[in-house]
Please model this.
Amino acid sequence: MPIRVLVVDDQEMVRAGFGALLNAQPDIEVVGQVGDGAQAITAAAELSPDVILMDVRMPVMDGLAAAREILAGPDAPRVIMLTTFDLDDYVYAALRAGASGFLLKHSTPDELAGAVRVVAAGDALLAPSVTRRLVEDFTRAQPVATTPPDKLTPREADVLRLVARGLANRQIAAELSVAEQTVKSHVSNILTKLDLRDRAQAVVYAYEAGVVVPGPRH
Model:
């Protein structure tokens, strides 16, 4: 079955362009295109997409408000927020709402299709530049403790910190000198123990639980 995608953007040219690029992929089908957040809520209920590409700033209802409402429902689709800049003020709020990541509007066709596949598979799309800024902003806003959650083993806490820094499994494996499959198992255990949906929620949890230590590496 192809990955069903709903494109939400107030610019018709952007919607048409993304739709054409995604429909050209053999494993992706664009099931709808709408121009604001209110229409996105209706379309999501009617079309049952697997993934929604959601613009952040739109008239009538912005993408953040629409994402909150859509993601609060049962069997919610994955949501990728579309933005012009990776320093968008909505980034952290959208991740807290349950978005699976961010995609820059000037991304290449391969990056666009790859992003849809990544989140449809249950992973998160978080660029290191985005996670680094989130850590910096969050640690400036409040003191950060370094005690890992009691539910996690010390090694799982280490993996969570590295996930929060935006590292992929391959990079985490190199950092900890373990096999990539071992990292995948740790990430799966972390999500299960903390009742989290995906890596995006794990990143938010890491900030709010105080397991991310501010410093030049973040």
In short: Confidence is low (pLDDT under 50) at residues 214-218.
